[in-house]
Please model this.
Amino acid sequence: MPAFFFALLATFLAATGGRDQRLVSALAARLGASGPLLAAGWIACAASSAVAAFAGAGLAQMMPPEGKAMFVALALLLGAAELAWPVRLRDPAEPTRSFAAITLVIASRQVGDAARFLIVAFAAAAGAPGLAGAGGLLGGGAALTLGWALGGQNGAPALARRSGFRLPPRCCWRPSGPAFPHAESSDLLRPEL
Model:
């Protein structure tokens, strides 16, 4: 079970803000947040997670126990390096709106990324490739669903627009109350200059 939970959490964190999530978010903004787009993302995630889990199972048979722990450490290090590397992606111009083409493009973005490499490492270290693959599928799919739901917008503002929640204007963000004795209550109404 630790392979499932580690893969679930690590894959979700590694895929959040990743290339595949940004692609799904951009496609949802351009084509609309439709069910088939979300299904294409989940199918691509299932395929890439299964391949990563089977690769981890193959590596588990060849590696000594000490090497498995080192492999997980290396996977975490390379995953962090990939996430720290700045990537400038262009929004795709999807002329065909083809389900198969979109699925292949999403899967190609997932091959070799940090999230799938972590699935390989957890499958190899724990010796439970099925659990690591299932955790990676759910974590990666949840990250793609988050990108699909936000639909190409800038994170929280998009969620605020969809839910109807509005943040107060910047002029109202001044501290007040007993924790801030030097702030006047009228400061809340005065805009910052």
Observations:
- DSSP finds eight helices and no strands in the chain.
